[in-house]
TrEMBL record:
Source taxon at top rank: Bacteria
Name listed for the protein in its UniProt record: MATE family efflux transporter
Compartmental location: Cell inner membrane
Keyword presence, Signal: no
Membrane-spanning residues: 20-44, 56-89, 101-124, 144-165, 177-196, 202-226, 253-275, 295-314, 326-348, 368-389, 396-416, 428-452
Length: 471
């Protein structure tokens, strides 16, 4: 056994040597449960905001794609770049670089947090008007948006620090912090929205304040852990010089991932704008129904985070065949999970929608979306989990291309459907077609060797592995 092998942390060794599927399931099962808990933070908010009326629900629907853009960029895109860089550094035995990446991740989080705050505080009204907002719904959107984005730095710090810890293969600590946060939000959200006793109700702003408090307390908890002896990596704010090479290692994956995330949320934002042609109830209906699609993101992320760590560690250690096998195992698991949810939503849409309101127009629009797009959720799950795997491999070109294809199909197809006299059902059907294109493009490219050079689509598994070995 070499000196480098002896120096490997037991968790790193598990990612390199343990059976793939049992290891993924072992790491993913609690992580998925916790991601459901994190997703519940948004659902809790929506449930209570729905009690304020249709305009408040529509306003929140306008802001939600932008909030999710920030969430997915900080946790999935740039967070994936952070976790990937750390996993590859640990897999390659570069412990000093892995420690240095912690501080670099914090600097990146602070910068992006400021950018999101300024962009939405200054340009929110223009954006939400462009998305179809008007009247009381637009005013509700601005109140909620301004409160959320004034604290954007907290969201970025929380998700970046969680990504640092996940990059080591430790899913438990971020998971425990998120569960504690949900326990906090269950009473805090209605308390701040409606008020109680001496505490005045803040309306829709109360939901945003409760969310920011969750991120503040969670960030403190993660900092305390990273400063403790239990953490594999150490958070040091002094004595570590900032190096462009470490920034580049995060950004080359994170920035490409951000393009992909932007495309995903832009597709939903455009669909929201198309629904806006049919009024506030249609915006509320689509926004409420599409929250189920957003719920799939943390679910798949629960599987994708350990997959990213495994693929990144294997690539750092030169175990390319194992990285590929892990990717396909993750794709199969993601398809089964998301397709089951999509089919259930298509068959029984109203139980989901009625959690958030009873307006007939909202229920009709939401039902149309779930029936048209729900059966295609499995392809969305495949594309998304392979996106996380590609982050681990440090190869994101084709996942980005897949997302751009999805955006083009959803936007152009939806626009043509309305231009040619179609209805909302046809607009939503194009969202489903776009999900199929997204999953197929990414899976086909990876099968063709996109992680290791030119895409050539070998006809056999043996041919694919030979290409991996030659690379």
């Amino acid at each position: 056994m070499s000196a480098q092998e002896k120096a490997l942390d037991p968790r790193t060794r598990m990612l390199l040597e343990a059976p793939i599927v049992p290891t993924l399931l072992k790491l993913a099962a609690p992580n998925i449960l916790v991601m459901v808990a994190q997703a519940a933070t948004g659902l809790i908010e929506t449930y209570f905001v729905g009690k304020l009326g249709l305009d408040a629900l529509a306003g929140m629907a306008l802001v939600f794609p932008i909030v999710m853009l920030m969430q997915m960029t900080s946790a999935g895109a740039m967070g994936g770049g952070i976790a990937s860089a750390i996993a590859r550094a640990l897999g390659g035995g570069r412990r000093a670089d892995a420690d240095g990446l912690v501080l670099h991740a914090i600097v990146i989080a602070l910068g992006f947090g400021v950018v999101f705050s300024l962009a939405l505080l200054l340009g929110g009204r223009w954006l939400y008007t462009l998305m179809g907002g008007s009247g009381e719904a637009l005013e509700a959107a601005l109140v909620y948006s301004n409160w959320v984005f004034v604290g954007a730095i907290l969201v970025w710090l929380f998700n970046s620090l969680a990504a640092v810890i996940r990059g080591t293969g430790n899913m438990a600590v971020p998971a425990n912090v998120m569960v504690a946060g949900v326990v906090f939000l269950v009473p805090a959200s209605p308390l701040l929205i409606f008020g109680w006793g001496p505490i005045p109700g803040m309306g829709i702003a109360g939901g945003a304040v409760a969310l920011l408090l969750y991120y503040l307390l969670g960030t403190i908890a993660l900092v305390v852990y990273l400063r403790s002896n239990r953490s594999l990596l150490k958070l040091k704010l002094t004595g570590i010089p900032l190096r462009w090479a470490l920034f580049r290692d995060i950004l080359r994956v994170g920035l490409l991932g951000s393009v992909s995330t932007l495309s995903t949320n832009l597709a939903i934002g455009i669909a929201t704008a198309l629904a806006g042609h049919f009024g506030a109830s249609a915006i509320a209906g689509y926004g409420t129904a599409s929250r189920l699609e957003y719920l799939l993101v943390p679910l798949v992320f629960g599987l994708g985070a350990p997959l990213l760590a495994m693929v990144g560690t294997c690539m750092g250690a030169g175990q390319r065949e194992r990285a590929m096998r892990a990717a396909w195992a993750g794709a199969a698991l993601a398809f089964a999970l998301t397709e089951t949810i999509g089919l259930a939503a298509a068959l029984f849409p109203r139980p989901w929608l009625q959690l958030f309101g009873s307006d007939p127009g909202m229920l009709e629009t939401g039902t149309q979306y779930l029936q048209a797009a729900g059966p295609m959720y499995g392809f969305f799950g495949v594309g998304l989990v392979l996106y996380f795997a590609s982050q681990g491999a440090g190869r994101l070109l084709w996942p980005v291309m897949g997302n751009l294809v999805r955006l083009a199909v959803a936007a152009i197809g939806g626009w043509l459907a309305l231009r040619w006299g179609g209805n909302l059902m046809q607009v939503f059907a194009m969202q489903g077609v776009a999900m199929v294109a997204y999953g197929v493009v990414i899976a086909a490219a990876i099968a063709g060797g996109a992680w290791f050079g030119r895409v050539g689509w070998p006809r056999t598994t043996a041919g694919m592995l030979q290409r991996v070995q030659r690379a």
